[in-house]
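WARN retry 2 of 3 for item q-0093 after timeout on previous attempt; input resubmitted unchanged.
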Amino acid sequence: MWKISTRVLAFSLLLLRSPHALPLQSPNPILLVSTIDFLPILRPLPTTPTLLSSLRYCSNDAGGGSDTRNGELVRRIVDILQGSGNSMSLVKHKLDNCGVAVFSSESVVEVLSRVRNHWEAAFTFFVWAAKQPGYAHSQRAYHSMISILGKTRKFDTAWALIEEMRGGRTGPSLVTPHTLSIMIRRYCAVHDVGKAVNTFYAHKRFNLCVGVEEFQNLLSALCRYKNVQDAEHLLFCNRNVFPFDSKSFNIILNGWCNVIGSVREAERFWREMSKRGIRRDAVSYSCIISCYSKASNLNKVLKLFNQMKEMEIAADRKVYNAVIHALAKASFVKEALNLVKTMEGKGIATDSATYNSLIKPLCRARKTNEAKEVFDEMLRRGLSPTIRTYHAFFRILRSGEEVFNLLEKMKMKETGCLPDKDTYIMLIRRFCRWRQLDNVFKLWSEMSENGDGPDRSSYIVLIHGLFLNGKLEEAYKYYMEMKEKQFLPEPKTEEMLQAWVSSKETADVQRIGLKDNQLDHGMSSKKTQFTCKNVDLGRDFQQQPETRKVRRERGFSFWE
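OK item q-0093 returned
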């Protein structure tokens, strides 16, 4: 494999071996897990050029190039990156000979977006683009690449890019709070809370201000990826540094209500807000009402909604949407539509989420005609359907023809809504259950052709579906392809396929042993000569019972 950047590799080794590595410390260091040393930020090596050349901006319209020209450039580059397999040396060779000399920052970001699920190809292109004359990476390009590296857990390389963004003697620093927030989110996604908190404390190392807003962004990232218990602990432990306010508590409340979906924990934290004197606002009520709505507890929803009126807390759109969803879910469609009119009468404009709150429960209840009427009303009001609108209708379809018809309508430019990764994953899972594997592979090819290649979740769903349909060879092929792209398989997936591989190897060994035994038996029979008279061998063979025993192991049968 081509060595993408000697500078990055050297920097990664220094990160691990530097004697100057020190853990980040906050004024009041409160960690929820054991303290983890933060990756040190080293100065650029003085004897070598920086990784991505000097940091300077270039014109978005290099040489007066048009959008069409940039689009053609993006397509050419993406074809090279996606059509060269896993050989990065071949990718680099093709890029060097593609004849492209001038880039715009938007083109680089677009290319990275197209190949974001293949980090090696993306990083190879990123390093190559930095060497092109007249171009230097923008802050947005850096952020795109750092996000890709963080998604695939290449944190050392991501920190190397952040070090390049500091600029040093070559120019101003491009590191912003958003840069660190990308790393925080990626650490939260892999549930590495310790490094997420340490990254938060890294703001001072980059001369960035740390305030309540940055702290609330940390809480939001933790809750978004189901680290709600850790976020709550962090909130209480840092009350002297970051005083309590409604927004901080609402972030934790939303985590319990809408991310974890635990009514018990939501009620506990709701009482905790009252106990600590935290004012409950419209956001607080929207969270708890949404939680009860998802739990189909209409009585609690209406009680809290009336309580808001008594306390003269003006309900916002999110509150109305949650109540409308609860009413529709309980089959009170007429009352839900009346509430929509009430909402509009108070000057609160409806949005796509409002109608989705009606469509989703109607589809789940198999009330297709009523759901279509609401959908038509949504279009008459000039509201565009969202991806969730189409997902609700996909779930009630019962044939492949219906699915592909709706998929084609969804792709029409008039809808303004294209299928995303979740759409393909949902449909692949559905076709696997229907045992329509031709449609599965059709969707898989279409997903790749749209420039949105399969990611880790897509591979996991496809492999499980093929395995459950008895397509073990195909499942193993995609499993190996997934590992080649350095996507981490789920432990369950890996255990399942490794068990099949070991069983297959055992079966092959036993089959070879059985053939050898039969060959040895044939040779010994030739040496022993005897004659059997007045015996009907054919009839005698048919009357003989099977004497060999069968051993069953891991779903397979073997002769002993």
